[in-house]
Amino acid sequence: MSAESVILRPVGEDDLLLLERFLTEPETAGPFQWYGYTDPRRFRQRWTENRLLGEDGGQLIVTAGDEPLGFVAWRKVVVTASTHCWNMGAQLLPEARGRGIGTRAQLQLVRYLFAHTSVMRIEADTEAENIAEQRALEKAGFTREGVLRGIVFRDGRWRDGVAYSVLRDDPLPADV
Hints:
Elements: E1 6-10, H1 16-24, H2 26-29, H3 41-50, E2 53-54, E3 57-64, E4 67-80, E5 83-92, H4 101-116, E6 121-127, H5 131-139, E7 143-154, E8 157-167
Parallel strand pairs: 5-6
Antiparallel strand pairs: 1-3, 2-3, 3-4, 4-5, 6-8, 7-8
Helix pairs in contact: 4-5
């Protein structure tokens, strides 16, 4: 079976309902991304301001064929007065998980950010219990850097995270 073709594209107004589902539906957000109900208008407000593409970060829709399946996002992490890196992640609809779509989307985002920004480093992190995302990041060329103890409060308790990074000079997989 060949891998599904994954495409990243800017968020359109019609995509806002999809994004809002990740903030209002626990089953859509998934077990590692549900932090309780938050204001679903935040996507719409940011879309009105800058179409979810700004100098400090952005979001793109992940599609397979014409079907929107989730999003990738990145945000600026200021390291020093003259240095920053990106922190990135992905969220997919439940029906898109486990198909390699997230791995391919994250690799495409890494390539995009290195091609269009001057950063040396891109970071990603996930909960220590999220083995599927750890595998996806490693397949997309990220290196595990370490455990972040007690970094995330979710579902009534503090949880450990795992930090990953990829550097501009690191070899990236040809395809995943």
